[in-house]
Amino acid sequence: MGEVIVITGLAQGMGKEVAKMLAASGDSIAGFDVDEQSIEALRVELDAIGGNHYLDVLDITNRKGVLAFRDAVLEKYGKVDTVLSNVGIGFFGPFEEVDLEAAKKCFEINVIGASTIFQAFIPSMRENLGGKLIAMSSLVGQVPFPFESIYTATKFAIEGLVQSILYEVSPFGIKMAIIQPAQVSTDFAAKIHHLPPEGSPYRQRAKRFIDRDNKLIKDATTPLNAAKRIIKVLKADNPKLHNQVDFMSTFFLFLNRNLPKSVRDKILLNHMDIKV
User: Fold this and answer.
1) CA within 20 to 30 Å of 169's CA: 21, 131, 262, 268, which one?
2) Nearest by Cα to 174 from 163, 166, 183
3) Residues linked to residue 6 through DSSP beta bridges, in sequence order
4) Which alpha helices (H) appear in the chain, and where do they start and end?
5) CATH 3.10.310.10 is right for the domain spanning 4-271
6) What's the rounded mean pLDDT across residues 232-236?
7) Mean pLDDT value of segment 62-81
8) CA-atom Rg of the chain in angstroms
9) Residues in CB range of 180: below 8 A, 6 or more apart
10) Rounded distance, CA 42 to CA 35, Å?
11) What is the pLDDT of residues 116-146, one digit of tens each?
C-alpha cells in the first residue's frame, strides 16, 4: 500500500511532475493550487494514471480553507505520511526600488504559507508518532543573490523555520527536510523578471542579470529530473536536512561552505555577469 502525500502548489512545474510520479507508484496524492484550470488538467492526468487523489482549488493564504482541506484529507485517508510545501512565488528588483507592500505578499505566500500547511498537519503526525514535513527552499536560502533580496529573505526564513521546528517535533518521530533548487527549466523566473525603469541606477546590471539568468534556465535541469530527486527525499526513511536537485545549487552551496566570502562573492558576481 502506498503512502498519503500532501503537496501544495502541485498543478504546475516540479510539483506536478512529483504528483504524477507518486501516483504512478501507487501513492495517494492530496493537494491544492490556486490555478483552477491547471488543477483540472492535473485531475485528468491523475485519473488516467489511476490511483487515489484528492485535489482542491485553494489559495495558501486562506488559512481557514487550509484547515478545511486538512480535515477533508484526514477524513478521506485517516492519516498523512508526508507534507511537501511546494507553493511559492518569486520576487525580483533592486531593493531600493522594491514596493514593500508587494513584498509582504511574497512573505505571506512563501513563509506563512509553509507555516500554515505544516501547522495544520503536525497534530495528526504527532498523535501518530511519525511523518515527514518537507519545505521547498532555494539556493538563495543560503547564498543571497542580488536583485532578489525579498525572495532571498523568504528563503532564509524557510531555512530557519524548518530547523527551529525540527527541534520541537523530532521527539514525536516527525522528520523534516529542505529542498534547495537553483535553476529549473520552468517559467518561474520569467514571471518576475522586470527591468527597472529608465533612469534607474540599477537598470544595466539588472538587465545583465536577467539575460544571464534566462540563458542558465535554458540549460537547467528539467522539472521531471528535479522531481525524481525530490521523490527520493520524500521517500527516504531519514531524509537529509538539506537536499539539492541540480548542479548549480550543489556547486554554489559547496563554495559557500568552503571558500572565503570575498572569493565567493567574486565568483557569484562574475557568474551572473554583474561585476561592476
Assistant:
1) 21
2) 166
3) 30, 83
4) 13-24, 36-49, 63-77, 100-107, 113-128, 149-169, 203-218, 223-235, 247-258, 261-271
5) no
6) 96
7) 98
8) 19
9) 137, 138, 139, 141, 142, 242, 243, 244, 245, 249, 253
10) 11
11) 999 999 999 999 999 999 999 999 999 999 9
Residue 242, C-beta contacts closer than 8 angstroms, at least 6 positions apart: 177, 178, 180, 253
In the chain, domain spans: 4-271
Quote the mean pLDDT of the chain: 93
* Burial classification of residue 164, based on how many CB atoms lie within 10 Å of its CB (0-12 exposed, 13-18 middle, 19 or more buried): exposed
The amino acid present at 149, given as its one-letter code, is S
Nearest to 19 by CA among 1, 3, 35, 37: 3
Model confidence band, residue 190 (pLDDT cutoffs 50, 70, 90) = low
Q: What percentage of the chain exceeds 70 in pLDDT?
A: 97
